[in-house]
Amino acid sequence: MSYEPEAEVKRLANLKSFIEKKIAQLEEEIAFFKECLRLIDEQLKAKSFRRAIEVAEEVEEHEEEIYSRVLQRVLAKMYVSKNRIRIVPESNVKIEIDKPPFSTFLLKRVLDGYARDDLEDVRRGRLTPDEALRYEVKSEGGVLKELIIYNYRNDERLRRIRSLIRWTFEKMLESR
Questions:
Q1: Is the model's pLDDT at 49 over the cut of 70?
Q2: Structural domains counted in the chain
Q3: pTM (2 decimals)?
């Protein structure tokens, strides 16, 4: 067996090159996985923080009844916290979410109107996007289960929303 130093050097150089390429490839993968972990951590922190805020708000919320003097009965429970209003109709109150005045007046005119005003304030720099009013309608089979209004912002809006919910529910129940 003859010893060829040039062949040995060439094999070692190829091996070195292969290892360097593999290390570079693995370093890229590690950087990618670190970035994935960073993004996951951010999402976990945001979701955990949001959940903690929601839990704190639920502890701080107070319950009110929306009572109709016209119909002489409780129409809904309203749970109010600093940044959120939850309206839950009584079990015997069926509010169809696609029918007026719920859909056309309460949602489109009143709540969407507040949301448009707030978005204009966001555009002008008076509010941050997180401070703008938004709402969520939860329903089952087209019947309202819960209306959640986020960022109502002040007592005047709270009073007006309470009053307009009462009026809307009364009109919907009277029309049956």
A1: no
A2: 2
A3: 0.67
**Does residue 153 contact residue 73 with C-beta atoms inside 8 Å?**
no
Same domain, 33 and 111: no
Per the document, the length of the chain is 176
CA–CA separation, 160 vs 162, rounded Å? 5
Mean pLDDT for the stretch of residues 48-61: 64
Co-location of 56 and 77 in the same domain: no
Regarding beta strands 143-150 and 84-89, do their DSSP bridges make them parallel or antiparallel, or are they unpaired? antiparallel
Q: Kindly state whether residues 20 and 85 are assigned to the same domain.
A: no
Owning domain of residue 23: 1-60
Q: Which of 18, 38, 60 is the last residue of a domain?
A: 60
Least confident segment among 30-34, 65-69, 78-82, 142-146: 30-34
Q: Are 38 and 55 in contact (CB under 8 A)?
A: no
Do 73 and 145 belong together in one domain?
yes
CA 37 to chain centre: 23
Helix, strand, or coil (residue 13): helix
Buried b (16+ CB within 10 A) or exposed e, 128-138: eeeebbebeee
